[in-house]
Amino acid sequence: MFNIKIFNEISTEVLTLKNNLELNSEIQLMTKYKSAQSEDYKKAIILILKERGYSALEIGQLLDNA
């Protein structure tokens, strides 16, 4: 009946990058986020931090303070 979009689409590129980055520590991820040129790379890092239980506010603070 209704076509409700609950989840944002995540590209294959973002998922591949996420898999490659998952074993990095939070400090390593923050450093890589700051130096990243690719938006997909940044999205992958944010997905990892969300999966680790960080809220959007905490992620913003972590990445601003890195």
Structure notes:
The chain has helices at 12-21, 26-35, 39-51, 56-65. By secondary structure, the chain is an all-alpha fold. The radius of gyration is 13 Å and the shape is globular.
Computed structural class:
mainly alpha
Q: Indicate the overall shape.
A: globular
Helix content: 55-70%
Unreliable segments (pLDDT under 50, ≥5 consecutive)?
none
Question: Summed up, what is this model?
Answer:
The protein has about 70 residues and is mainly α. The protein has 4 helices and no strands.
Topology:
Elements: H1 12-21, H2 26-35, H3 39-51, H4 56-65
Describe the structure using short key phrases:
66 residues; mainly alpha; 65% helix; 0% strand; globular
